[in-house]
Amino acid sequence: MSELRINNITDTAGSSGPIIAGVSTVTSTSHMVMPSGPTEMRGGRGRGVFAGANNPSVQNAMDFVTIATTGNATDFGDLSYGAYNLGGCASATRGIWFAGYDLSATTNSIFYVTISSQGGVNDFGDTLAASQNHSAACSNSTRAVRAQGSFVPGSSNVLEFITIDTTGDSTNFGDLPRTGVFSMKGSFASSTRGIFGGGKGPDTNQIDFITIATTGNAQDFGDLLSATAEGSGCSNTTRGLFMSGSGPLDNNIIEFITIATLGNSQDFGDLSQSTEAAGCCASSTRGLAAGGTTPTKINTIEFVTISTLGNAQDFGDRTVTGYGVGGLSDVHGGIGD
Predict the structure, then answer these.
(1) CA–CA gap between residue 128 and residue 217 (Å, rounded)
(2) 223, 264 Cβ separation under 8 angstroms
(3) Strand ranges (DSSP E) for 81-203?
(4) What is the pLDDT of residues 252-307, one digit of tens each?
(5) pLDDT in tens, 122-146
(6) How many CB atoms are located within 10 Å of the residue 131 CB?
(7) pLDDT computed for residue 39 by the predictor
(8) Using an 8 Å Cβ cutoff, are 60 and 83 in contact?
């Protein structure tokens, strides 16, 4: 059988696409599904979005990059208020920001954005309880799960979830298998499993996992290289990365795990400098880390090729400088291939 390849189909004049009128039928051993719905709702464009920062005033800026390229970030829009330590996760079309910290009070706000369309945030609903900052958040294509984080005073080990394509308040998911924890080393997901690693309250090297589709308590996955916190994470469908953080080791170390198996993290490579509180996002091939503090506040974005161990390379710069950056993308590992 011959292989037929077609790049373009036009009308007879070559000036427009084909016009199909009347009753048309197709006989095939396979099938074709035509795209439907508004263009901005079709998703999966390879866009990463970063939000918030502290330096020393709290920023409300969101900016975005095309993960497959390199270059400086472009303005996306604004948060409803200046915030940092936001928990970011997404489906292929909608990005979710869980409550961050604005230096003045606890907050329980959940916001969403349409990733392919620039603009401000929209109200999604409320978290189960107000907190000062997120501990971590991750998602597959339908469900987002958040660890609550710190309060005044104290912290929480509660997990809560939302259904991304709806709006409304979050629902209890279960608990992390440790006393209150906040400012985690990082979090990320495959399409089935969510990962939460490290954190404060006290500092820990523990990595836990959940099955995103089913509610229940998290289980032990393994250990980080050391007890670390204040980082971020990202993943493709198979490998997850912990990038930046605070702890006894050099904070330029990038660690990785294979999400489908249990075990301790391993050394992946290094960021260009020791960095705390960067924001991360990923595609199926690349992981990005943006902003942070060295302790000098930075706006740099770096990238790695997830399948290949090695050091990070320069990508470009954010539009704002600071730490406590939130990150998400429309092509991360939780969405699948």
Answers:
(1) 16
(2) yes
(3) 87-90, 94-98, 107-114, 122-131, 136-139, 143-150, 155-163, 171-175, 186-189, 193-199
(4) 999 999 999 999 999 999 999 999 999 999 999 999 999 999 999 999 999 999 99
(5) 999 999 987 776 668 999 999 999 9
(6) 29
(7) 52
(8) yes
* Average pLDDT value for the chain: 88
User: For position 180, what pLDDT does the model report?
Assistant: 78
Pairing label, strands 313-317, 326-329? unpaired
Omega of the bond leading into 202 within 30 degrees of 0 (cis): yes
CB contact burial 211-247 (16+ within 10 A = b; e otherwise) = ebeebeebeebbbbbbbbbbbbbbbbbbbbbbbbbbb
Task: Note the helical H segments in 144-235.
Answer: none
Question: Which pLDDT score is estimated for 4?
Answer: 47
136: tokens are 């971590």
Instruction: Find where tokens 């309250």 sit.
Output: 201
Which residue would you say has higher pLDDT here, 130 or 239? 239
Structure confidence by residue, pLDDT tens digits, 282-293: 999 999 999 999
What does the block give as tokens for 270?
């290094």
CB 78 within 8 A of CB 301: no
**E runs forming strands in 201-329:** 204-211, 219-223, 232-235, 239-243, 253-258, 266-270, 279-282, 286-293, 297-305, 313-317, 326-329
pLDDT, position 17: 55
State how far the Cα of 305 lies from the Cα of 283, in Å rounded to an integer. 10
What residues contact residue 117 under an 8 Å CB cut-off, 6+ apart?
40
Q: Provide mean pLDDT across the span 147-176.
A: 90
Coil, strand or helix at 109: strand
- Taking the CA atoms of residue 167, residue 172, residue 173 and residue 177 in that order, the dihedral angle to the nearest 10 degrees is 140
Is residue 89 predicted with pLDDT exceeding 50? yes
Closest listed residue to residue 119, CA positions, set 69, 90, 80, 86: 80
The total of other beta-carbon atoms located within 10 Å of residue 278's CB is 29
